[in-house]
Amino acid sequence: MARPLSPEKRNALLAAATQAVADLGVQASTASIARGAGVAEGTLFTYFENKDVLFQALYLHLKEDLGETIMPGYPYESDFRHRVEHIFQRYVSWGLENKAKRLAISRLSGSGQLQDATRARGMERFQAVSRMMEDAVQSGVLVNAPIAFLYAIIERIADTTIEYMDSHPGDAQRHLALGFHAAWRAITP
Amino acid sequence: MARPLSPEKRNALLAAATQAVADLGVQASTASIARGAGVAEGTLFTYFENKDVLFQALYLHLKEDLGETIMPGYPYESDFRHRVEHIFQRYVSWGLENKAKRLAISRLSGSGQLQDATRARGMERFQAVSRMMEDAVQSGVLVNAPIAFLYAIIERIADTTIEYMDSHPGDAQRHLALGFHAAWRAITP
Amino acid sequence: MARPLSPEKRNALLAAATQAVADLGVQASTASIARGAGVAEGTLFTYFENKDVLFQALYLHLKEDLGETIMPGYPYESDFRHRVEHIFQRYVSWGLENKAKRLAISRLSGSGQLQDATRARGMERFQAVSRMMEDAVQSGVLVNAPIAFLYAIIERIADTTIEYMDSHPGDAQRHLALGFHAAWRAITP
Amino acid sequence: MARPLSPEKRNALLAAATQAVADLGVQASTASIARGAGVAEGTLFTYFENKDVLFQALYLHLKEDLGETIMPGYPYESDFRHRVEHIFQRYVSWGLENKAKRLAISRLSGSGQLQDATRARGMERFQAVSRMMEDAVQSGVLVNAPIAFLYAIIERIADTTIEYMDSHPGDAQRHLALGFHAAWRAITP
DNA sequence: GATGAATGAGCTTTCATTCAT
DNA sequence: CATGAATGAAAGCTCATTCAT
User: Fold this and answer.
1) Which residue from A144, B24, C76, C92 has the least number of CB within 10 angstroms?
2) Which of C23, C149, C178 sits opposite D143 (nearest CB)?
3) Considering the entire predicted model, what is its pTM?
4) pLDDT for A64-107, tens place per residue?
């Protein structure tokens, strides 16, 4: 592993894996991923020790990508509601614009192949959000519950929102508003 | 009429499949499922034409099982809040008491192998709930959103609640209350 | 085996086997043959000990059927040419009218599953022909070669003739004449 | 360019398939063929997409082999009888010296698994013979019949001849002469 | 005797992984 | 390092045969 020669190939493999996992879940074959990336079957294994390592890396890669969309412009100084709204809306638009990535995360997440450590590391990039939520709980703006619990609820409502916006494009804005309404009310006392 | 198909064997196969899918997702092998059910490998295929058919049947079987837990005692005459609470609490306790079943549903749901038709048929048993929610939307008790959207949000929050109650058994009652609070607020205006 | 209760069932099985073997060769499954005969899978095995026994019986049954078409009206008193012509023409018309039977014989014959003893017993019904040919060899009308050799040549030419008449129905009569011409010349000095 | 596909392995697979098909027909298992070729089970499928493709390739390979024996030394300038005799004798000696190959062709031919296109491509190598026979028909040396019909008759008589020479080695030369006599007379007016 | 569920060996094919080139 | 042929352990599924009903 260490220092692979070509970041392009690594990225091509991750991109191909994203599509393959979105389509077929963890059943996607390493051969098809390599083909999708335009590299030889064996090459995959010089970048990722085995299929499981590839999947953990893929999950982290996708979460990183999500983080890079959500976090820039994060309104550190606004009130809690605006900060949650920022996160919610960015999450939703990332999901709408990156269907394969969102599906791949969801497939990995529900496959039983994702290690707890990986899931935990995937959260790291969102610490600013966690901290904000802690403060908000302290100050009584959010309901007094574990952060992870609140975070999970927001995430699930956001996922549901994405699915609805996706399948009912005409009502997209309405569903976005409904989704955020639900999320905000769900986590406030 | 020779030996009739045995409901016990069918159930044993579904039970074994539940466990196997909970453990390994759709990667669970038919051989391991048959072994788990105590029947020969070939026998699985006299009860289910192929693996895919088995999975669709398993999903429906589990949803049926869930329905049989949730629906009895449904307080048709109570106010909306109590009815939603009934559903929520029953759903959560079923999930807590049937970890493998809940996991199996979730694995199937996220696998990409579940047909839309199967998902739709799985909802049939819960029509009383849908109808109640329609009325509640009409009367302004629930927020004006598609029933399926509201239903999905409740389901997701319930799932999250189950996961938390499961991993923090000490705080179970508190999380149950928090979960219902979140769900109720999420779907009300 | 011995005395099966129902000759109808036995015949239905042989008829279904004929069709199945014509279609798929010896790969035809016993289940499909039973289905074709309208009996249960297990019933096949009360009439025929196993698949191999069925195939030997099928071959004999078909040869018997062929014999019953060819031999009646055999012109014991005509000259050799007319007797051979009788055989040839009857063989060809049987083949044309019983495509599945002919194909089944050919599939069995070429499958490597047919026992030599079965092949030999299949010849028994045609002893009058063999004897006639012996006489004809004695009297110098036919070329001095083993009867079986001459018989095989006639058979092969007849098969070829059938195939041609079958695929070129317009020229049927011409091919029949050509076929007999070839056969008669082939076996005469 | 990694390890290139090895013609030796391909040939070993075809040789093993020849033997296996000669012994068991199309029922021969891919596992036994791979074992016979001294390669892993999976390797067969890097050389032949699936069993059917293997069988079509095998047929063509064997016909090619036959063509390479028959055609060299073909007396383009001799009279028609000598040319037919060349073909007949070469065909027969190839068959005698390559029992497994001949049997394999015959098993494939009668199995119902051989595609028409494959059968047609198998004839390509013998175009010189077809053309010669066309000329001979034109010039009245051969009986006025479709070339394929005449060709089939020769082939069938040659096959019969081979079988007899094989089972009666003492009379081999006599049967060869008888066989050619029969064939030549069969196709001439 | 007839039925068809039950069996498990066996089949073809796939696939993660290795390693010769 | 990149390649893709080679590997062989599964995988899903079929099927001849048995036997409880």
Assistant:
1) C76
2) C178
3) 0.92
4) 999 999 988 888 889 999 999 999 999 999 999 999 999 999 99
